Amino acid sequence: MTARPATARPAPRATYRLQFHRGFTLRDALVLVPYLHALGVSHVYASPLLKARAGSTHGYDVCDYSRLNPELGTEADLEALVAALRERGMGLVLDIVPNHMGIGPENPWWWDVLQHGPASRFAGCFDIDWDPPDPRLRDKVLLPVLGDEYERVLARGELRVVCDGSDVTVRYFEHRFPVAPESLLVPGRFLTDAVAEFNADTAALDRFLARQHYRLAGWRDGDTRLNYRRFFTITDLAGVRVEDPQVFSDTHNCVLGWHQRGWLDGFRVDHIDGLRDPARYLQRLSRAAPGAWIVVEKILEPAETLPRGWPVAGTTGYDFLNRLGGLFVDPAGEQPLTEFYAAFTGEPTDYPALAREKKRLILREYLVAEVDRLRRLLQSAAARHGRDFDPDTLRAALIEAVACFPVYRTYARTQPRQISNTDLDHIQAALATAREQRPDLDPAAFDFLGALLRLELRGAVADDFVARFQQLTGPAMAKGVEDTAFYCYGRFVALNEVGSDPSRFGLSVADFHRACRRAQTERPAAMLATSTHDTKRGEDVRARLYLLSEMPGVWADTVRRWSAMNGRHRRDGFPDRNVEYCIYQMLVGVWPLSPERALDYLVKAVREAKQHTAWTRPNLVYEQAVKDFAVGAVTDAEFVTDLERFVAPLVEPGHVNSLAQTLIKLTAPGVPDLYQGTELWDFSLVDPDNRRPVDFALRRRLLEQTRGLSAEAAWARRSEGVSKLWLIQRTLALRAQRPELFDAGGYEPIEATGARAGHVVAFCRGGEVTTVAPRLVWRLGGAWADTTLALPHGLWLNELTGDVVRGGRVPLRDLLRRFPVALLSRTHD
After folding, report:
1. pLDDT digit string, tens, across residues 740-758
2. If 178 and its partner were Cys, which of 86, 115, 130, 151 is the partner (CB 3.0–4.6 Å)?
3. Does domain 15-99+242-278+292-305 have CATH number 3.30.450.20?
């Protein structure tokens, strides 16, 4: 294939996310290209393709940045995929992982660091503290991989030294570790004899291990003693110092080479908030890949926007996902649902307080090493500026400030010194809340912390503190909120989504329009998502659950009835009412659901909640009670009959919600993304449930059957998901025909009037294409009464039904009579 010059390329029309692993390779993707082209997407959006650890199911554990993952195929396979895409005018976007690497024997950089310590030529690639307080870790890396304390493991003889020719390694079951060359220099002894002595004499083995550039430790020590930066709380994903120009080059040469060959059109940057200096990183990336479409995995809080100076198209779309979802949540349901949740479960309903509590939990129990490293820097900075604080006071103030931080992070830069007014506001808000929460702490500690974060104090230690503080607030938010609080706060789980604030109940149509207008002006090529590999629930699960906000009284009565009915499945008071309530919401959103999928989800959910059980301290008795309850319920004929009777009338309006959010995503300002398989109904739960194999043969067959299908026929086959597939294909076809309307066209809200005006979202793109989608459809009940839409004057073709509509006041009952949503294009015939 002839390389295409790396010049400016248009943003994708629509992307399709594919999850690559050894069960789905580049050759499998090649077979899909004709299908994806027929569907209407312009770009394959690939999960990470670089060499990951053997058997990786996701690719975010890259262990060699220099080459393609051989489990996925060869470079010839990648070239063939790109060629097939180019033949159809399509392209490829790649997910890249600059923040961290998977570590272990498969990572040559990490292996070299363990072998040579600070002298390794790769030592600067990782963010390692070579001089921690523990003298036993000086110039060493802590490796918390043992199943028990080191001394016990050593005494049991579970550690061995193995000599294979000239290759000597330390073994612990399936784990292998290199040895420092100098530790093998035993005067007057053959290598094999020395190794035999190590294995025969525990004391000799202990002395030998003490001479290595790492220290083996029990796995529980990872959270408290770790001396390298990691991804969140995962000790086998080590942070990479991509802020170093040489490290940037070494970690990006391969993918940038693919871009220069014309194989890649853009990048999705994973976990941008983990980097020390995101702005500088993005500047380097955009210079190195001119013309590339770049989006960042940046979780924005509801009122937050991307830093203006970032040279990117936008985010990966969680902000859009939550705004879009808010349209289908009825604000009138908030109070009754909140009151019922409190009464039924006995749980608190102050979500901001819960979020702070769970962030404190993560900081005190899981990110202990990270907090302590920051505390030491804070102590040192204080001493350099003539301040003397008690270490416990500083630790407590630090934890509280991070727990109260209102966003994932700030982006202050120390070289050159820059901090935005927005960041200053976030710092002020966090410290004000922290002072309110901890009036017992010396306020001077918060004052000093604020001075550092506002860049009012200078020095290498102060600068390092600011950078590391900004790298800590994100993990605290992600683990404390998304991976803990979301599994504890069960008021209305449809709102518990990545980047959301579950205390915000619904979004007005006017606010949605304002956000879209801003997006069209500021980030018109950002990605728009409704499902990803990280969403907590599939888009169609949420679409059905949104309906509960419109029927809070009926829902509350139903839950009370179910709870009484399922009382016979409880054991010793378990599960608690909060988990029971979440189980009912899960079943309504996903039903039908196999017991196996339900149990896999529930075990993860209760462990993530960290209330009665956790990944690090599983309470198997409690978990068994939860599983027994769930299995008892879903195999109880009386309950299942009642459940199905309740769910049945929700199915069709749930489909309508789904079609509405799909059409809006496909036509709003931005680049719509389809997560693999979601062109049909997606009733997935959190990973790994949402990474199950996709039946592409079924999708190809159904897409073929949509040719020439009428709107009525497509809607009649909604149980198969055909209506969603048909809508996507029709809408993307229009985007392909009129790209200028969606790339640079304006965004104008269209007004509805009448008794049901609040039940529709309508807007016009470029004055030529109009989207009409219903909302709050349960209360609407299909009865539009006198409600009309002020369609701009002229003749409009309904791309879904073929009807021609004259502009002016158009009755919605007529416009949506044949299909639940409408897509109109101005006709000039």
Report:
1. 999 988 999 999 999 999 9
2. 115
3. no
